[in-house]
Write a structure and sequence with these properties.
The chain has nine helices and four strands; from the N terminus they run αααββααβαβααα. Helix 4 packs across helix 8, helix 5 packs across helix 7 and helix 6 crosses helix 7. It has two domains: about 100 residues, no CATH class; about 60 residues, no CATH class. This is Envelope-like protein.
Amino acid sequence: MEFIESAGLMKTVTKIGRCYEKLVREYIVNITDECSEGSDEFKKVYVRGKCIKFSPTTINEYQGRNNEAETEEVDLLKKVTEEITGGQIMHWPKKGLLSTWSLSVKYAILKRIGAANWAPTTHESGITPMLAKLIYLIGTKGNLNFGEYVFNLTMKYADSFAVKFPIAFPSLITDVILSQQPDILHSGEI
């Protein structure tokens, strides 16, 4: 819990808000590649005829997080792999997923919390590079731009044509939408 507290992510684990699944899915479907372009004019998603600002800054502001924090560049998965496996494995596997069995106890716990709260996955026995980098930054108390992490993870849906997929941060997305457009819900929506 000390690492989660230090990363400023306690709210994402202990205060999970409401989620309107239909609204979140409509939002995800309307995300386009243009959302990731530089200008604030592009960082918008239109849902139900309303404009929602969507950027790392918007997410950080909603969370009350510091926008100044820059996520450390962890290009070398080698460094991440060595740290989260306690030095047992030196290189990220070529098949794409690192076995959860190889994680040290601290990172195995962070992976389980991460898979439940930050990056839902269908891979119980493996960890993706993106989640590995997140738990690495949390476990080493590195600089974490959480808004950037959520934004980049959500942008992955813009390229996907998958019909059923686990959505990361559905409650956070719901809260961001409702904070900007409180009257967007349809009557009777649950």
